[in-house]
């Protein structure tokens, strides 16, 4: 007997349609980002100059008014208007699919997980994190069009593996945003607080936890390491063999929440997940209560990957 059930025909068809719209929206969002900011004409000492304004309010002169700069301005405005119109249309279509997803019960990922992934995408910091642990199963089951048995998914925390190899780029981005990582989580739920006994964990008023993990200190990695310069921000905890996860092939899929909202999850490949879970189950200091779940998850994901050719 399979350790999962396949989505019924209506739900599977709806997920396929919603995924197509979501991926088109992602592409449109990327193109709209290329034309963020604007262009304007500014008169200086009696001459007009074309000014490119960035989303960060930085400005750059593209030269005095001429046939060439007028053509640059015209092309930019047309491209910007077209990109924004397409993005808005797809956003409306995506909202329609959110309602359809909920109506036919396509998804079951926690709403808060989807919200966290979406806010990180919106702030352009998603590339610095990989979802690992139990929540990765939502990506695997979505890609396969199935629902895994509940006992394999039972958990109240999500593990985010922070890529310290890009920490300087991350620090620069967060500084420009004027945000700490805790601030990011509070954009999703204002009740998130850092645990006094575990400074790498943020927990909300309902007990949902976000753990920030990192590879063991290597090369020039600082240790200990806080995510930003904010004194009240999260720290990252070293995780054994996390470097293996960072170096593995990634796996990505749009997931759907219980209310129909969608987000892209990037995690590790199913094969890496299986190997890692079996290694964890074999360690002498692993919590005995978690060993059986480690083995169950490894077995299910291995079978799922083989049956549906995930990560191939």
What is the CATH topology descriptor of the largest domain? Beta Polymerase, domain 2
The number of E-state strands comes to: 14
CATH architectural type of the largest domain: 2-Layer Sandwich
- The helical percent reads 40-55%
Order of helices and strands: EHEEEHHEHEEHHEEEEEHEEHH
Structural class, from helix and strand content? alpha+beta
Quaternary structure of the protein: single chain
Total helices: the number is: 9
Provide the domain count: 2
Quick description:
With 312 residues, the protein is α+β, with helices and mostly antiparallel strands. Helix content is 45%, strand content 23%.
Walk me through the structure.
By secondary structure, the chain is α+β, with helices and mostly antiparallel strands. It has two domains: 1-106; 107-308, Beta Polymerase, domain 2 (2-Layer Sandwich). The protein is built from nine helices and 14 strands. The strands form four sheets. Strands 5, 7, 8, 9, 10, 11 and 12 form a seven-stranded mixed β-sheet that branches. A three-stranded antiparallel β-sheet has the order 2-3-4, covered by helices on one side. Helix 1 (9-34) runs antiparallel to helix 2 and helix 8 (270-282) runs antiparallel to helix 9 (288-308). It starts with a strand and ends with a helix. The model has no long low-confidence stretch (mean pLDDT 95).
């Amino acid at each position: 007997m399979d350790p999962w059930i396949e989505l019924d025909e209506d739900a599977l068809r709806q997920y396929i349609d919603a995924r197509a719209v979501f991926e088109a929206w992602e592409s449109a969002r990327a193109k709209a980002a290329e034309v963020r900011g604007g262009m304007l004409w500014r008169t200086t000492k009696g001459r007009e100059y074309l000014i490119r304004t960035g989303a960060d309010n930085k400005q750059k002169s593209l030269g005095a008014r001429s046939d060439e700069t007028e053509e640059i301005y015209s092309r930019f405005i047309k491209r910007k208007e077209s990109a924004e119109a397409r993005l808005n249309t797809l956003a409306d279509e995506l909202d329609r699919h959110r309602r359809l997803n909920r109506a036919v019960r396509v998804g079951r990922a926690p709403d808060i997980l989807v919200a966290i992934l979406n806010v990180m995408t919106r702030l352009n910091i998603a590339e610095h994190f990989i979802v690992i642990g139990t929540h990765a199963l939502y990506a695997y089951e979505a890609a396969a069009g199935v629902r895994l048995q509940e006992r394999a998914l039972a958990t109240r925390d999500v593990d985010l593996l922070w890529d310290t190899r890009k920490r300087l780029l991350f620090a620069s981005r967060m500084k420009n945003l004027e945000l700490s990582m805790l601030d990011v989580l509070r954009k999703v739920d204002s009740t998130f607080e850092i645990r006094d006994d575990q400074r790498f964990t943020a927990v909300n008023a309902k007990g949902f936890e976000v753990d920030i993990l990192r590879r063991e200190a290597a090369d020039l990695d600082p240790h200990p390491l806080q995510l930003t310069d904010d004194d009240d921000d999260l720290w990252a905890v070293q995780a054994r063999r996390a470097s293996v996860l960072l170096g593995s092939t990634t796996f990505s899929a749009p997931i759907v929440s219980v209310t129909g909202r969608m987000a892209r999850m990037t995690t590790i490949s199913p094969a890496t997940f299986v190997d890692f879970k079996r290694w964890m189950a074999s360690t002498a200091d692993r919590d005995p209560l978690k060993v059986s779940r480690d083995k169950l998850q490894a077995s299910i994901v291995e079978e799922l990957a083989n049956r549906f050719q995930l990560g191939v």
